[in-house]
Amino acid sequence: IDIICIGDELLIGQTINTNAAWIGAEVNKWGMKVRRAISIADDAHQIKEEINESLSQSAFTFITGGLGPTKDDITKKTFCDFFEDVLVEDKATTMRVTQFFESRNLPMLEVNYLQAMVPSKCQVIPNYHGTAPGMWMEKNGHIVISMPGVPYEMQNMMTTTVLPKIAKEFDLPEIIHYT
Question: Contact, 55 vs 140, CB < 8 A?
Fold first, then answer.
């Protein structure tokens, strides 16, 4: 697998990238070997370039970051462009996001409704701890999974949805480390 962590905040030291270490340790337990883990900028060209590189080298690509409601969160749009797809509303996500804000007595803004927009070809990965859903896409037998950069949101998606789905659909080897 490849791990691509997106966010300028990772590159300038504002945020420590704990996602790559956590994903690496977790996928290894499930029999997947990490080929590389990189951090990249919130830059559409670089995101597409790295996904393309990963498609040529790995069976799975795990992406974190850039799915929030702010202007620098461009991963979802870039993801859609890369897969030549369009954004559509996922009604289940709209319901979850609406409930998320209602439970906190916060107003639901237009930017929050946009969280429910996902590529039409993706399988939505529910986010039970935040507003940005994950996205599972396939291209030429390669799986690309994009998840939020917030660690506890990503970790919940991985343990409840992503890894069980991979284990169910693929024959994974057992990896034993000897030191």
Answer: yes
Chain centroid to Cα 46, Å, comes to 16
Kindly state the greatest CA–CA separation across the chain. Answer: 53
CA distance 71 to 30: 35
Q: What CA–CA distance (Å, rounded) separates 141 from 70?
A: 32
pLDDT tens readout for residues 114-141: 889 999 999 999 999 999 999 999 999 9
Query: Which element (helix H / strand E) includes 152?
Result: helix 151-157
CA angle 140, 125, 131 (to 5 degrees): 135
Strands 142-147 and 60-64: parallel
| pLDDT digit string, tens, across residues 70-87 | 777 788 889 999 999 999
| Backbone torsions φ then ψ of 134, nearest 5 degrees | -90, 165
Number of neighbouring beta carbons within 10 Å of residue 14: 9
Is the distance from CB of 39 to CB of 46 less than 8 angstroms?
A: no
Beta bridge mates, 119 = 87
What whole-number distance in Å separates Cα of residue 129 and Cα of residue 28? 24
Residue 65: alpha-carbon gap to chain centroid: 7
pTM, 2 dp: 0.93
Whether pLDDT at 69 is above 80: no
